[in-house]
Amino acid sequence: MGEPPSPTALPAGATSPSGVAAVVVGADEQAEVPIDVARWVDLARAVLEAEGRGGELTLTFVDREEIAALNAEHLGKDGPTDVLSFPLDDEDGPPGVPVLLGDVVVCPAVAAEQAATHAGTVDDELALLVVHGVLHVLGHDHAEPEEAAVMRARELALLQAHHWHGPPPAGFRQEHPG
Fold first, then answer.
1. Dihedral, 176, 53, 13, 43 alpha carbons, nearest 10
2. How far is the C-alpha of 176 from the C-alpha of 153, rounded, in Å?
């Protein structure tokens, strides 16, 4: 996976309490599922801004082979997965200097496969994965039931505010079927 280029200057927009804008750099490095990169970059930026975090995040869409390689390399797991998050800096840096928050990597092909039994539609699945990945970069986790409840509540609130602009559609599920 190639790294998307970093912007050389921060664009106008919302800022974190430290005065640093939320910058999301997106790339589509797969061809199996059509992706509107700008739309998902906007959602990731909205999540950062809603969480009061400025800094730079990359959002990359990759194929099954690439996400399987990343899954094996970083988590020691075989096969493709839907989303991986790689947090970097966890503190705000000096005023006006962007913090490198991390990377979110999504596999649209896996998202498309699991959408019917998970979020309901491919669109809602991608939205959930983007929000989920960004929250992981910001430090949320779901290893323990209490953490999972907090993270799922935040995901739902962010999706309602920035994806559906209202309540979730019938059939939307956050958790994978067990």
1. 0
2. 15
Helix axis angle, 145-159 relative to 122-137, nearest 10°?
A: 120
* Domain spanning 22-164, CATH class: alpha beta
The reported pTM is 0.88
Task: Look at residues 126, 174, 131, 121 and name the one whose alpha carbon lies nearest to residue 30.
Answer: 126
Domain boundaries, the chain: 22-164
CA dihedral 94, 55, 136, 103 (to 10 degrees): -120
Separation CA 61–CA 14 (nearest Å): 25
Per residue in 126-145, pLDDT tens? 999 999 999 999 999 998 99
Backbone angles phi, psi at 38, to 5 degrees: -60, -40
Locate 103 and state its tokens: 């990377």
CA distance 10 to 118: 36
What is the model's pLDDT at position 153? 97
Q: Check residue 10 and give its pLDDT.
A: 39
Q: At what angle do helices 37-50 and 122-137 cross, to 10 degrees?
A: 40
pLDDT < 70 regions, the chain: 1-20, 90-98, 178
